[in-house]
Specification:
heterodimer; A: 193 residues; mainly alpha; 8 helices; B: 302 residues; alpha+beta; Thrombin, subunit H; 3 domains; six-stranded antiparallel barrel; six-stranded antiparallel β-sheet; 4 helices; extended
Chain lengths: 193, 302
């Protein structure tokens, strides 16, 4: 009972603007960690997937997962996913994967740009529509990747890689977005401090 | 903090994304124009991240071993029977080998055999996967001050797996034989033909450029060839297999997806440099030709 009351109190607290006591040191650390969750988790995924483990489709998984991260957080909490951060995530992917540099940065920035510029429209849409828009973006973006890599290495790579990546991205997005939505409300919400 | 007006601040936040786009395109251009620079940065990053990789890899390795143990325990009876049988056979071979070794020493003694110089190698642990969706490579951890150079070859316990393409302070990158840019000259043992083994991003590199009238035979051994001095000859790679009648592939003896440890061999040290003017004997009593062969004076049409 008391818990419930406290929770509702907090909810009200969150919505009403007003003067509140400034945060203590621990609260500030808590705030910072919550703010860091999306970026930190993306970083972890990038590092984890570059370790040589027997994960099937490991190479194909990395960019789809990271693009889902960037898309979701740039729409729902852009403060936790700043543009410079996205840039460095892309740079890290490029450096760790020994692919022609700049391509992953470019892809992630395109996704980020679309997410951030359309966020007010996208947040009002239903999940299915957001997913559908993500699918379209992903098709375009991974096609650009395939094209650029083919141009830079002066040979046509099989289209199957592009198709694989796209399918992974589209298929993984609902699952990831469940986790993201949960995190968005709980562990990654700086307002909960 | 520099005092900036709100308008400028807003303008700056709007400018940051286009700026980053331009940076991304610049990085792409630099990567094409100065690949060496990017490689250096890459290896610096990898060197920096090596401890992290090692930390992440350890528990996963343990987990892997645990499951392997579990699997082994389940099949212990079957395995034991098989091993006993195999051991009996191997004991026979052991005596044969001893005899042959003795005989070999004896024969070499009689022939004044010049022994091959010893090949040095180091063994390295694979910590990270340097491959992306469009290429295949692995990263190995080395000690600083190592003596590994670009172009040295990497073997697993059973055969060739790749070549060193970049070396850092504490790491090296090995391009695997199934990378799309990998081309290895090979020799086929049964049909005695030469071919090129070309990686195509799958686990099984394909065979190309073999003679039309002598296609590779299913199951025959594939060895390296020293054409172009890229590889020493006679290193086993795998065996030939046909996925469909027109496309022979090479099945490597070690699965390239599950590599954990590789040996990096330094074959370059004892590369044989042929003497000048190969195959020609300088005869002192023969007139040295200084003029072109087709000159009328030489042909007797004065």
């Amino acid at each position: 009972m008391i818990n419930k009351e406290k929770h509702s109190e907090r909810q009200i607290h969150k919505r009403i603007p007003g003067i509140r006591p400034s945060l203590s040191r621990f609260q500030r650390i808590d705030y910072f960690i919550r703010w860091l969750v999306p970026m930190g988790f993306t970083l972890f995924i990038i590092l984890f997937l570059s370790v040589r483990l027997n994960i099937p489709g490991r190479n194909e998984l990395l960019l789809p997962i990271v693009s889902a991260f960037v898309y979701f957080w740039s729409i729902y909490r852009p403060t936790s996913m700043p543009a410079i951060g996205v840039f460095f995530l892309g740079l890290l992917i490029d450096l760790l994967n020994f692919s022609p540099p700049g391509i992953a940065i470019f892809i992630l920035l395109v996704i980020y740009g679309i997410g951030i510029s359309q966020r007010f429209r996208l947040t009002r849409y239903s999940f299915l529509l957001v997913w559908f828009i993500f699918s379209i973006i992903v098709v375009g973006v991974f096609f650009i990747q395939w094209l650029l890599i083919s141009v830079f290495s002066l040979r046509m790579f099989p289209v199957s890689y592009f198709i694989f990546e796209t399918i992974f991205a589209i298929g993984l997005y609902p699952m990831l977005s469940i986790i993201f939505t949960w995190a968005h409300r709980t562990i990654a919400d700086p307002e909960q401090v | 903090m520099i005092p900036i007006s709100i308008q400028i601040k807003q303008a700056l936040t709007k400018l940051i994304l286009p700026l980053l786009f331009i940076m991304a395109i610049l990085i792409m251009i630099i990567g094409q124009a100065k690949p060496k620079l990017i490689e250096d940065v890459r290896l610096k990053v990898v060197d920096f991240l090596l401890p992290v990789y090692v930390i992440v890899e350890k528990p996963c390795d343990m987990l892997n071993k645990f499951f392997q143990n579990f699997h082994d325990v389940r099949n212990i009876m079957k395995e034991n029977k098989k091993l006993k049988h195999e051991n009996k056979e191997l004991k026979g071979w052991y005596h044969v080998a001893l005899g042959l070794a003795e005989e070999n020493v004896e024969l070499k003694k009689q022939l004044h055999w010049i022994p091959d110089s010893r090949i040095t190698y180091i063994t390295a642990h694979i910590v990270a996967d340097g491959s992306g969706i469009y290429h295949k490579a692995v990263l190995v951890v080395l000690q600083s001050g190592h003596n590994v150079h670009v172009g040295e070859i990497a073997l697993s316990g059973f055969g060739l797996v790749g070549r060193v393409t970049e070396t850092g302070d504490r790491s090296a990158r090995i391009l695997l034989i199934n990378d799309p840019v990998s081309r290895v000259p090979v020799n086929l043992t049964n049909s005695h033909v030469q071919a090129i083994m070309a990686g195509d991003n799958t686990s099984y590199p394909k065979l190309i450029f073999y003679p039309e009238d002598k296609p590779p035979i299913e199951g025959e051994k594939v060895l390296t060839d020293n054409k172009g001095n890229a590889f020493p000859a006679e290193i086993p790679i795998g065996y030939v297999h046909y996925l469909d009648p027109r496309h022979p592939i090479v099945v490597p003896y070690t699965s390239l997806d599950r590599l954990r440890i590789v040996r990096i061999f330094n074959f370059k040290n004892n590369e044989i440099n042929p003497p000048d003017a190969p195959g020609r004997i300088n005869l002192t009593n023969k007139k040295t030709k200084t003029k072109p062969v087709a000159s009328p004076a030489l042909l007797g049409h004065n």
